[in-house]
Amino acid sequence: MRKVVKFGGTSLADAHQFEKAGEIVRAESSRRYVVPSAPGKRNPSDTKVTDMLYACYAQAEADADFSELFGRIQDRYQEIIDGLHLDLSLTEEFALIEANFRAHAGRDYAASRGEYLNGIIMADYLGYTFVDAAEVVFFRENGEFDDQKTNEVMGDRLKNMPNAVIPGFYGIGADGRVKTFSRGGSDITGSIVARAVQADVYENWTDVSGFLIADPRIIPNPEKISMITYRELRELAYMGAGVLHEDCIFPVRREGIPINIRNTNQPDDEGTWIVESTCQKSRFVITGIAGKKGFCSVNIEKDKMNMEIGFGRRVLQAFEDNGISFEHVPSGIDTMTVFVHQNEFMNKEQNVVAALHRLANPDMVDIEADIALIAVVGRGMKSTRGTAARIFAALAHENINIRMIDQGSSELNIIIGVRNEDFEDAIRAIYNMFVLVQL
Ligand code: ASP
After folding, report:
1. Bridge partners of 340?
2. Cα 153 to Cα 149: distance, rounded to the nearest angstrom
3. In which region does residue 94 sit, left (phi positive, over 0), alpha (psi from -120 to 50) or beta (all else)?
4. Does the model's pTM come out above 0.70?
5. What CATH code would you report for 3-194?
6. pLDDT confidence of 50, banded at 50, 70, 90?
7. pLDDT confidence of residue 248
8. Strand ranges, E, within 378-420
9. What is the position in ligand 1's atom list of the atom closest to the CA of 8?
10. Distance from residue 116's CA to the centre of ligand 1 (Å)
């Protein structure tokens, strides 16, 4: 058994959290590869080290005095080293980082030091080998992650290592400079390492016991999701359900490696399993509900649209030409509606309308703002009758008007559009209908 364990920022925020992480790693000899984040918040009003590094580097880049903030970053690490009673000094590392800040080594370099230093501490604490991510994670010239090269080099490097610590979040660009993934990117590193070592499980340790059926800010104490498929997760994550970086599922999914989300503060909780496929039924017909506010619908009408070959393409071209991606395109016989992100669309709306007239010659274009989209996701829907009916009944009962309905052909989700102001009520109504009544 071979496991990759990734710890998030709050799991490594101070020495006490490090001890919990250490206990988790030591509890199972299969936990051989560890991917740490940078120290996160110790309490809600605290600042993540990554954010301190960004701020500090901004000062360095402006050639201002950055010593105060730099000193505070040093203190965060020293506190951890002292708390763990390690015989380790980062003085030389910090001297080099400081010099590189002065030499304007780059924003990504600066941010990456959070993980880099935490990796050194973690390796020392566990007695594992430290492997700098800049030597095993590669980006192409165009800035994209180079999965092939990374998999080869990292696989080779880790092949004969019984254990290792590989810091998350960064790698090396084609230009030889350190480059980071987007924020929260240590999740991606964990997944890349899991693929490279052909792990049996990728454990992602964080500060919650897995995924919840709905956002706890809307539903107090929602039920947990014990198992979810990659495809379901993708639908929910796309609609704004957080916890895991969206891109981290691709490397492991390809290899069929399951991800287990676990809680460092409650290590006995089973957490959520993310799997390729399962014959296990979810407890409820729906696996999760997520959504986002702030969409616009652009409604295009044209008589006999259904007879006109290429009409849809011309409509979408008007959006493409203006650099706008669309979310959903439900259509009727003589109408087609394009859902877009309001903030992306707002500044370009008149250009799009003009392009629509020029390209597709519609009878009418009508724009409506402030729409929220809600995705009701569940692998159980395919084999259950009446799911849509129950959603509509729940919403009708709450007097919520449905603006749009879209069921993917995979029957994995139903997307509904409601007014922004009905968003929370709609989620509550759906949750009550599918989850509460069944408890
Ligand atoms: N430390 C980085 C961030 O705050 C990456 C991570 O934690 O995954 O975004």
Report:
1. 296, 326
2. 6
3. alpha
4. yes
5. 3.40.1160.10
6. very high
7. 84
8. 404-407, 413-419
9. 7
10. 12
Q: What is the DSSP string of 248-300?
A: GHHHHHHHT--EEEEETTSTTS--EEEES--SPPPSSS--EEEEEEEEEEEEE
pLDDT tens digits for range 87-114: 999 999 999 999 999 999 999 999 999 9
Cβ of residue 248 lying under 6 Å from some atom of ligand 1: no
Q: And the tokens for 167? A: 């810091």
CATH fourth-level superfamily of 288-438: VC0802-like (3.30.2130.10)
Residue 169 Cβ contacting ligand 1 at under 6 Å: yes
**pLDDT-derived band at 185, boundaries 50, 70, 90:** very high
Q: Which amino acid is at 40?
A: G
Q: How far is the CA of 363 from the centre of ligand 1 (A)?
A: 49
**Residue 414, Cβ neighbours under 10 Å: how many?**
21
Q: Residue 41 pLDDT more than 80?
A: yes
Domain boundaries defined on the chain: 3-194, 288-438
Residue in 35, 53, 108, 115 to alter for ligand 1 test, most ligand atoms within 8 A of Cβ = 115
For the CA of 245, the nearest atom of ligand 1: 8
Of residues 125, 50, 117, 53, the one with CA closest to residue 83: 125
**Ligand 1 near 37 CB (within 6 A):** yes
Q: Per residue in 206-242, pLDDT tens? A: 998 888 999 988 999 999 999 999 888 888 877 666 6
Instruction: Give residue 385's pLDDT.
Output: 86
With cut-offs at 50, 70 and 90, classify the pLDDT of residue 243: low
pLDDT range class, residue 244, cuts 50, 70, 90: confident
Whether 300 contacts 395, CB under 8 Å: no
Quickly count: other Cβ atoms within 10 Å of residue 102's Cβ: 12
Question: Residue 318 above 70 pLDDT?
Answer: yes
Q: Tell which atom from ligand 1 comes closest to the C-alpha of 38.
A: 1
How many of the other CB atoms lie within 10 Å of CB of 106? 19
Nearest CA residue ID for atom 6, ligand 1? 184
Ligand 1 pocket residue status of 119, Cβ below 6 Å: no
pLDDT at 240: 63
